[in-house]
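Q&A FORM
Asked by: J.P.
Topic: structure of LMBD2 protein

PROVIDED:
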Amino acid sequence: MSGAALGLEIVFVFFLALFLLHRYGDFKKQHRLVIIATLLAWYLCFLIVFILPLDVSTTIYNRCKLAVNSSPAESNGSYVTVAPSTQKCFKPWSYIPNGIMPIFWRVVYWTSQFLTWILLPFMQSYARSGGFSITGKIKTALIENAIYYGTYLLIFGAFLIYVAVNPNFNLQWNQLQTIGIAAANTWGLFLLVLLLGYGLVEIPRSHWNGAKRGYLLMKTYFKAAKLMTEKADAEENLEDIMEEVRKVSESIKYNHPLRKCVDTILRKCPTEYQERMGRNMDDYEDFDERQNSYPSEKSLVKLHKQVIYSVQRHRRTQVQWQILLEQAFYLEDVAKNEASATRQFVHTFHSQEPENKIIQYFYTPTVEWYWECLLRPWFYRVLAVVLATFSVVVVWSECTFFSTKPVLSLFAVFIQLAEKTYNYIYIEMACFLTIFFLSICVYSTVFRIRVFNYYYLASHHQTDAYSLLFSGMLFCRLTPPLCLNFLGLTHMDATISHKNTQPTAYTSIMGSMRVLSFIADGFYIYYPMLVVILCIATYFSLGTRCLNLLGFQQFMGDSEMTSDLIDEGKELIRREKRKRQRQEEGENRRREWKERYGNRDDSTRNRVVHTDQKESTFSETNTNRPLTKYTRSNGRTERDRIELLQDAEPLDFNADSINDDPLESDSGR
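REPLIED BY: S.T.
REPLY: Here is the structure written out as tokens.
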């Protein structure tokens, strides 16, 4: 089993990152380099989280083996004795041989740092560029990142000059490397505490509120009102951009040098606008530079960028609106079925997507009713209590992990108790649950936050390239300080435990933080205590209230604006529901008509075709007869038809009396 656990987790994490990226990104429409770079960033960050518990168990085994093999004098001098010399160390099932983990962590860490500080910022500017060629996009990306890269180079250069001039500093390359790592981790820890303080409170509270009857439905109404406003704004913005594109397309003709740029812009437009502009074009007119003023290439680049943004936003709001409608209809069905006596879940509308037969076989209407109306609220309450307990333990440990005598961090207590009995499975499970919960609190906040329309992770393949790359940057900057914080909570970091023990392979590549004592003994220890203040602020929704005062409508139960938006959203959902019902009724009537009269129409159609064939055969037969007979018989038939038409008279329905037999009305004639 040596190294097998490492290989299995590497494969599992890859497919996990691929699944999440497929949910948020669009493999068909987005550039392959964007997909590969984002997948690599997500994969490396998730890999660190999943592999770190194996590093902890391997380190504990190495400490035990070193303590057993060393003499008492050496164990009291070089290393702290972890186990008595008479006790045998048991190798964990997931043991990783020496020399593999340091190389693995070094490759993973420096690759993620290269992505977050150099490659991904450049690709962000490249993806948002409106250039028409690769060279133009690269030039735009370099110009936009010149200030970004120049600032870091200036700070690093000033630091190197200061170290070279000052004789008191004799820094080597390893120490410079440690300073760079410490600077990156300090920036990440600053953002980590902000996101962690929000997630520790919001995740348990969201599950608790999800168990309340009607809460999710009211919040869905609120989202519907806000999304309709955004949807209307996106449609209006798209119309304005398409009008500019139409004017540019009409002014620049087929033989203009910039016509290729216009064609590139037109290909990015929706299909209906392309057809409309294609009908209004007249490509047979030559352009005249003296009579008309044509847009420059710079203005076309700007227009191209606006088209990409407006089309992406319009498509995203349309998809989100349909998803929100389905969610609102389902929540209304849940509210209706709660009082059902039959205890079978009845849907107002049938699912538009084909359901899996296996799921449909087990997830029957009765099972669905018991889950949605009875079990799910209690399950959410229990889950919220468990998550709240984890949050309390994390907050307590963040405030007390610097205390080594006595050990107050609960995570450190759990790991040390398991270390005495060498229960490696318990150690790995405890480490995995701890770091997994911390990662969920941090990463879920990254997926939830929205910076206007510049950064927004939208599910169902609606996230743009800029947001995907930005999320990869955040993950790569947050994961290393998150892992260091976890090692500090469990006292596996020698900087926190103040023990001269063998460090983990992960902390060994970080170097000794004693080079910067004010960061190792000050910022890393006392700054995480701010998570208490952030948790209190999140619990009382101070950030939500501030955004609401600034004009950004947020869901608040005691706000009049929230009540108005809920009523507006309820009316919008009701209107869409009536529209959907009329559509389904029309489809049902057409289906019933086709089922009832479809065979009859087919038989009638066949009879008509058969009659036409007989008439055509009869006419062909008559053509071989003498013309006089055909003319005489045809003339007699026409005379009889003319006499009948002359004798017929219209009925007078306004008369005082109407005879039963219309022929008797003209009996006098």
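FOLLOW-UP: Residues 1-68+90-215+357-561 form one domain.
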